[in-house]
Amino acid sequence: MPKFAAGVVQFQSKVFPEKQGLFETLSHGQSPEALFITCSDSRIETAMITQTEPGELFICRNAGNIVPPHTHHTGGMTASIEFAVAALNVPHIVVCGHTECGAMKGAMNPEGLDSLPHVKEWLGYTKAAVDIVNELGRDMTDDEKMALLLRHNVILQLQHLRTHPTVATRLAQKELTLHGWVYDIKTGGVEAYDEVSGEFSPVSELYAAEVAKHAAHFAAH
Fold first, then answer.
1. What does pTM read for this prediction?
2. Of 84, 117, 132, 183, which one is least surrounded by beta carbons within 10 A?
């Protein structure tokens, strides 16, 4: 904790003054470009991966980057999705999985979660992805199955997102775009899901035009 406290002091004395104008603007409201749903894993640093500033991402994190299908039961994810989509009008939603995900390892071996009953129940929202991997990956190694699960879980959570009324409405109005990503902790690589091909490709390829458009901005900073 002393390290974190020292970090706060460093932020207040060095970082905040350099970005004071930004924070003054943000004090009047927010208009994020995306709802970014990712895992709670401490190794995932959203701002570092996306090179974004405060105010650009509305972030929801949980074990396994899960989106429960919509029901009349109010939960934190459901409320946050509704607020981001209906109140903040975000134009994009990203579901970002990652390698070495403990939640996905637990989903593949639920018998090992008996001492973590809430985690076990939560990971039930990945069951369809696990079933797909068990069917398609009969001849695969454990590592290959896990790589497949990471991707199918992202695809499944995108499907769950579409069951939320606010999301379905904005999609029908073509005011919202869904994105599925998988981040590789070891290499820094990020792959994105292409709904047309049904495959994952590097973001540099799938978003080539957008990357080129913003390259000058990053070069200048």
1. 0.94
2. 117
